[in-house]
Specification:
Layout (H helix, E strand, L loop, with lengths): L1 H17 L17 H12 L20 H13 L5 H8 L3 H11 L16 H20 L9 E8 L31 E9 L2 E7 L8 H14 L1
Antiparallel strand pairs: 1-2, 2-3
Length: 232
Amino acid sequence: MYEAAICDEVLFLCWKKCDGNSPNGKCSLWVQAVFRSIVFQWYGRFRDGREGIEDDARSGRSTVCRSDNNVEKISQFLLQNCHLSLRMLADEVNIGKDAVRKTVAVDLRKRKICLRFVSHTMTPEQKDRRVTACRDLIATADSDPDFFKKIVTGNETWCFAYDPTTERQSAAWVGESSPRPTKLGFQKSCVKTMLVNFFDWQGVIHKEFVPEGETINAAYYKGAMERLLNRI
């Protein structure tokens, strides 16, 4: 900034020398390293009688950013509202945003994560029943070493008639002037069916595809359980 102010002072002296009578009000001297607005700003200052080139004193932000006082202030703000952004914290504490980021990440050891949406919440009674069931399972597993080998579970999944290709699998060689090929991110298959499978600790025990037009209800699962028992 000192070099720019010196250039402005020289420019002002040249302006006085030519008395502003040059074409379009411009002198022959041109300073490429200084913005035009800065030249006008310093020209006004020199015209008003200023002779020094030092910047005006200003308060600005604190030079000691990551002090214990600022760390404590940021900690209190986050305790009151954990959703504050770095910009909000910087305005409250009057320090830079980068200093706030370092204070939160390094000094306070905090990280900002997005919320995880859940489909539903359980009531206190449901939570208590789930805790009781888990404790019973743990007690049974501790008393019986082969308990997990006796567990059979199942799963349902939709199977499409084809496997959609990935972006890498869809890559193709084209000419130098050819346009970039495109593909839909997700294409629905015209043919799909549901696969029901049951497995234990050793692997799949029984699997079957649901016939087209069949409804997954209690009657269907009764037949599926009977077929599963025959396989076991």
